[in-house]
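[job 4471] stage=fold_predict status=RUNNING
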Amino acid sequence: NIAVRHYDNKDDVRHKFLAHYYKGCVHYNAKDYTKAILSFSKAELLQEDLHDDYYSGLLFQNLGYLYFRYYDYPKSLSYHKQAIDCYTKSNKQTHRLYELLKLANIYETGTPTIPANPEEATRLRQLAVELAMTSQDLLKHIDLKAAKKAIESMPKLDLQSAVEKQILAEKGKEPYDFYI
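[job 4471] inference complete, writing structure tokens
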């Protein structure tokens, strides 16, 4: 609250945004979701003037989680898509990976207001797998069991060989390479 009161009277958009964003994080962590949405919404009003895609992505990701919690699925989906765009622009690939998988899960099961779309879920998982394959660091973040559907549907892919290659790569014997 001290930071919010201090920066609300200043022309410093970055610090004003951060004060509201982190206040929203505190409320979120305290499970006071209504106050979290209010604080994040104030940060969102400053987001365009911030010109920081990474923090914008974090903001949109948190709003996506909150609106999902409150069953506003279309709004949640919109925020998660905006987060992916921001993470792509800011080259935050691990964050982008998690958001792709979050969207894939939403499309896989559907919600009361968003019909299940297994094709879109598979497409998003394929993107996540392709992204993960670009880096050993990213690959450790992806649950290959959850991505199995995407891996199985990728062209020219031998799943058994891919798993064997992953095991060898983890032992330092060869790089990650899922394509045959």
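[job 4471] summary: Residues 155-160, 173-180 have pLDDT under 50 and may be disordered.
[job 4471] exit 0
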